[in-house]
Amino acid sequence: MNFIQLPKNYLALVQNAFPKLEIREVEINIEGMVNDVLIINHEQVFRFARNVTGQEELKYEAGAIDFISPYLNLNLPKISHSSDDMISYPFIPGLPLTVNLALQFTENQLDDLAQELGRGLNNLHNIKINKAKESGLRNSPTFVQGVDSWKTFFYEAKEFLLPQMGKNQSKEFIELEGFGNDPDFLEFRPSVIHGDICSDYILVDPVTTKITGIIDWGTAGLGDPASDYVGIAFELGEKFLHRMAKSDPKIPTMIEKIRFWVRTMNWQILLKYYRTNDPAWMNCIHSYNRDILPVGSGWIE
Q1: What is residue 33's predicted lDDT score, i.e. its pLDDT?
Q2: Is residue 210 exposed (0-12), middle (13-18) or buried (19+ Cβ within 10 Å)?
Q3: Which end of the chain is more exposed for a tag (fewer CB within 10 A), N or C?
Q4: Weakly modelled stretches of the chain, pLDDT under 50
Q5: What's the pTM?
Q6: What angle do CA 53, 58, 60 make, to 5 degrees?
Q7: Residue 131 main-chain phi, psi, to 5 deg
Q8: What domains can you pick out in the chain, each with its CATH number?
Q9: Burial 22-38 (b: 16+ CB within 10 A, else e)
Q10: Burial 217-239 (b: 16+ CB within 10 A, else e)
Q11: Alpha-carbon torsion (61, 62, 66, 72), positive or negative
């Protein structure tokens, strides 16, 4: 192994915290927005803050995981070390729940997996808000939330994005703006949420087809529970949400907002890019699953 390839002083931080750890293999991920990751020996994960903001985020995430874990039937990272510069936890095996992986499973396996995930999110969203606030959970920073935020989004998107759109996209934009200006449509009761759940953060054993863990809880907090289904719908589609709804009965009541969020997600990301000029945001642009129905279609059994 060539230690010169390791960024900054990460190796020294690891060895100081785990002096008996024999380093045989290292995987590096420096594509994150606020922190870098080392996976050592496929045994231990180390996440490093890039700056002071990153330090605060790591500390917050460790606290959020500690509070949320007892409420869920799903496995979360078990923090074994937390400091200003780094948090660490045992490696959680599994593959991301992408559409390509899901296509390898039988209908019954997908049903079981979806219901397992549905139970977990239902438990998460039913955590008492007063206990969450007492634990220090903040409002989740996950993208656009609330009427005023959506009005600001569409105002800015009109200026920067709409002039670049084709005829069909422009028509959809105007239609969705109508929903974005409707306070009744956007109304929500705050819940404890993951805030950024997507296929990359849902790890599955490809043999047993069981969920091995849910990772990346830095955006956890109080927010609109509908946001926790957006990444799932984006990648796996509405049919998977129907499977989840067998154990997560609130999904049908949120389906229109989930569709709205899915159909505006790439625009939200593009606007982030325009605001920050950070090309990393472009890595988040994806095409959404084709079975996502138009907003206003209702819940079709």
Answers
A1: 65
A2: middle
A3: C
A4: 1-4
A5: 0.90
A6: 95
A7: -70, -35
A8: 3-90 (3.30.200.20), 95-284 (3.90.1200.10)
A9: ebeebeeeeeeeebbbb
A10: bbbbbbbbbbbbbbbbbbbbbbe
A11: positive
Question: What type of residue is 8?
Answer: K
